[in-house]
Design a protein that fits this description.
Blueprint: H1 3-9, H2 15-23, E1 27-29, E2 32-33, E3 46-48, E4 51-52, E5 67-72, H3 88-92, E6 99-101, E7 109-115, H4 121-125, E8 133-139, H5 145-153, E9 156-157, E10 160-161, E11 166-169, E12 174-179, H6 186-193, E13 198-206, E14 209-210, E15 219-221, H7 224-230
Parallel strand pairs: 7-13
Antiparallel strand pairs: 1-2, 1-3, 3-4, 5-7, 5-15, 6-7, 8-12, 8-13, 9-10, 11-12, 13-14
Helix pairs in contact: 1-2
Amino acid sequence: MRLNKYISDTGACSRREADRLIGEGRVTVNGIRARVGAELGDEDVVQIDGQALAKRSAAPGKRRHVYIALHKPVGITCTTESSVKGNIVDFIDHRERIFPIGRLDKDSEGLILLTSNGDIVNAILRAENKLEKEYLVAVNHAVTPDILRGMARGVPVHGQLTLPCRTAPLGKFGFRITLVQGLNRQIRLMAAHFKLRVKQLVRVRIGPVKLAHLKPGQWRNLTDAELRALLPGQETF
């Protein structure tokens, strides 16, 4: 197996990013600096910056489709358009044809789901499913209890009042917010309504799926338990 594919298969990064790391001398094989295009044997030990790579849990063999949880970095665009530089499909560089379920702003980071199963996208995104999405937000001014209560009640965005949501403080300049809708740039516009500018926005949960310890650029296959919670009543995945 080629080294860049091995690294990608662990979920550490895309093959393209792996080649960059190899070229920078940050990857070793059996303690020796690796070269771009290197081939691996079964017993070879690969490290990045001195840390051994952990194998990603393999998707069950009976699955017909791919289901991925990615920690999208800032700067990656959630589009399948190959003409868009930094599009999410090229970034992951998966061997299957996959596409994102929903969106996450280019300027935001955090959890996004991708799949090769087009039949389930609408089922997951339907508003009546009330799938919760949880975010951590840092802003440029102090967040008061009145602001959090106002956001929770709903604010005008795109000519409509946002649905009630849950909010909680995170220090003086941050808050946690949990939504069941996903209007374009919703959280940034909700913050702007209270004269706040978002400095960092990280999505940490989509329904039963948590970002957990995924680092920016890393991805993993969803577990069977996560899929059953996302797609109740489906027999096969």
